[in-house]
UniProtKB/TrEMBL annotation:
Protein name: Septum formation initiator family protein
InterPro entries: FtsL/DivIC (IPR007060)
Coiled-coil portions: 37-71
Protein source organism: Paracoccus solventivorans
Keyword tags: Coiled coil
Length: 97
């Protein structure tokens, strides 16, 4: 009752096993594998957060630009910027250092 597999069948089984291992490895580690997908999802989340932060910054800058434009001049903002950038003060103000 001692049956052995013919050498051709053994080679066939070994080849099938090696191919299965290769495809399993490629599915996990390959350029389109599971680990690469997780890495891309994390990178996508980071880039979306960066994009949202930049969009908020652009909106803030558009608001400031509009408030300093000729169509809509915010005098308080203009006064604040002149004081900050140019160091201007009014004649009736005292400077305490």
């Amino acid at each position: 009752m001692n049956r052995t597999l013919p050498i051709g069948a053994l080679v066939y089984v070994l080849l099938a096993l090696l191919l299965s291992l290769y495809f399993a490895f490629a599915a996990v580690q390959g350029p389109s594998g599971i680990l690469r997908r997780v890495q891309l999802e994390a990178e996508t989340a980071q880039l979306v957060a960066e994009r949202d932060a930049l969009a908020a910054e652009v909106a803030r800058m558009k608001n400031l630009t509009r408030r300093l434009s000729d169509e809509y001049l915010d005098l308080e903002l203009l006064d604040e910027r002149a004081r900050d950038v140019l160091g201007l003060v009014r004649g009736d103000e005292l400077i305490v250092r």
